[in-house]
UniProtKB/TrEMBL annotation:
Belongs to the SNF7 family. Residues 9-21 have a biased composition (Gly residues). The keyword Translocase does not apply. InterPro entries: Snf7_fam (IPR005024). Keywords: Coiled coil, Cytoplasm, Endosome, Membrane, Protein transport, Transport. It is found in: Cytoplasm, Cytosol; Late endosome membrane. Its main location: cytoplasm. It comes from the Eukaryota. This is CHM4C protein. Pfam families: Snf7. Residues 1-25 are annotated as: Disordered. The gene is Chmp4c.
């Protein structure tokens, strides 16, 4: 396979060969790098726009051709800036979606882990044994209540007092 076809078919990345694609962390890091790069380009274009505007003002009515050229460059820079704004918006949306997907994946993994732990805990429990145990507990509580009632009732000391 030629180098050009490898490039266009995506066969060159070592990170994506073994796992079928980049990890969420790698993709997030790249998206953040791209966001930073575009933000720097935004700042650069904003300063260029200010310079061109200043140049147009400086030339004003003295050199209309130079002023018009400065305004045309300013307009081109503004168009580029607008495109970068749209691109940044798309990248931010994609990054947020990827972060949410990664969070959901982690939550699902942890829920599966908890389900396995619960299954392991419940392996030794039998529903019939639990029912029997609960009946025994209820019976013992009834007996304890009867004993408590018997102790708390007066034993006839002075109940039948004859006037």
């Amino acid at each position: 396979m030629s180098k050009i076809s490898k490039f266009f078919k995506g066969g060159g990345s070592a990170a994506s060969k073994g796992r079928g694609g980049p990890s969420a962390q790698e993709a997030l890091a790249r998206l953040r790098e791209t966001e930073e790069m575009l933000s720097k380009k935004q700042e650069y274009l904003e300063t260029r726009i200010e310079r061109e505007l200043a140049a147009a003002r400086q030339h004003g009515t003295k050199n209309k051709r130079a002023a018009l050229q400065a305004l045309k460059r300013k307009k081109r820079y503004e168009k580029q800036l607008s495109q970068i704004d749209g691109t940044l918006s798309t990248i931010e949306f994609q990054r947020e979606a990827l972060e949410n997907s990664h969070t959901n994946t982690e939550v699902l993994k942890n829920m599966g882990y908890a389900a396995q732990a619960m299954k392991k805990v419940h392996e030794n429990m039998d529903l019939n044994k639990i029912d029997d145990l609960m009946q025994d507990i209820t019976e013992q509580q009834d007996v304890a209540q009867e004993i408590s009632d018997a102790i708390s009732n007066r034993a006839g000391f002075g109940d039948e007092f004859d006037e």
